[in-house]
């Protein structure tokens, strides 16, 4: 192949006017005398600028945009939760004061590895704190300056969403959902234990516990926040044969905190 400068000389009859060192990358490039003046350009930098001018997402940005796309398809937040933050959680008991502090620290020190389990009776604001954590972590950035990706989902909704992918018209597939579960920086699984678990006659694992096991297994070594109205032993019992291994994984590398007190919801009735 002929060199570019030979071609330009032959075709346009223009001569080299010397060499120039690129200010940006330090490469040397050739200058030419042309009717429009002395011109030349650093090829690597020119190419780079061209690619930048296309404004294409990087591979990482593309991956993240796919992740956030699936998150927005999955995340459904009830109106009472939308404005929930750690700061506007109002503790009524010292275990709740502690829970608020734990939630704040969890967000500030988010490391993609540590997990948290908030347990306690209904109506103590576990879901409020869990959603506030998902929102709070989402505002934080990793070492590369990218916002963390987080998914907040009720355990029952996750199962229902996966079940819905089995219909032919579904825009999501089970694989895409599980892929997100695997990739998201933080998964917040709300109200674990509220699922309807249909036990087979022989006590073997059902579809629901099988999926929960898959999810818990995928999150091993990755950040997971769980809320539950149950305690450990009643959860194990609820999930049948899969119970011990599901719970083992849910509790792996997790700080556990139990909230006490009277339900916030009591006064509404
Ligand atoms: Zn250059």
UniProtKB/TrEMBL annotation:
One of its GO terms (molecular function) is ATP binding. Gene3D superfamilies: P-loop containing nucleotide triphosphate hydrolases (3.40.50.300). One of its GO terms (biological process) is DNA replication. Residues 112-265 form the AAA+ ATPase domain. This is DNA replication protein DnaC. It comes from Halolactibacillus halophilus. The lineage of its organism: Bacteria, Bacillati, Bacillota, Bacilli, Bacillales. InterPro entries: AAA+_ATPase, IstB_ATP-bd, P-loop_NTPase. Pfam families: IstB_IS21.
